[in-house]
Prior knowledge:
The structure is a single chain. The chain has helices at residues 56-74, 96-109, 127-139, 148-156, 183-187, and strands at 33-39, 44-50, 81-85, 113-117, 165-171, 191-193, 201-204, 209-211, 217-219. It is an alpha/beta fold. It starts with 32 loop residues before the first strand and ends with a strand.
Amino acid sequence: MIGNFKNAGRTWCKEADRVLVHDWPQDAVAQAVPYGVYEVTSNRGYMYVGDCFDTPRFAVDAITDWWFGDGQKRYRQAHRLLILADAGGSNSYRSRVWKAQLQELSDITQLPITVCHYPPGCSKWNPIEHRLFSHISINWAGVPLRSFETMLRYIEGTETESGLHVKACLRRGGNETGERVTNEEWMKLRLTPHDICPAWSYTLTPRPCWIDDDDQVIYC
């Protein structure tokens, strides 16, 4: 919740700062929905903050923004993408929308995308938890997040001795709930489950496409 709420932790301040102890929704200015992308090899973090709902489309949009904003520039020779994700939430292994959106990203980039989900209850093994989110939480500890600007400033101000740098971006709207993938759309996905843990590990490969007379991209 974004507003004049208590934020766990302690920090130095010139005078006492009065805040609300309980973060009731009616007292909030807005609701922040953070989604992080962390590059394990380069120790770089990217935090995309939404103001609506935590949906599969929002998660894939964040990955898409990372790829076209920084990823493809840093990894020009990349021939595939590997995503390590939690088993639940907006990138749940059960979500059809998550997989359908990743298929569209694979089609656009023409890169196979392999997803490996951590088993349920094992999200803390995900490096993004203890190499990115934890340091952001430490950086803004004790600071009331009264606005999106304050939140983004503290996210981008997060650095560590090991060289962690974080970029932050605010995404307004565009992630409404209720999106569904029909059986017909599902059958068109080029999704291949892996032999080991097929429910949690799978690869999406680009679909062939062509341009019709109206300059519309059509996928097989």
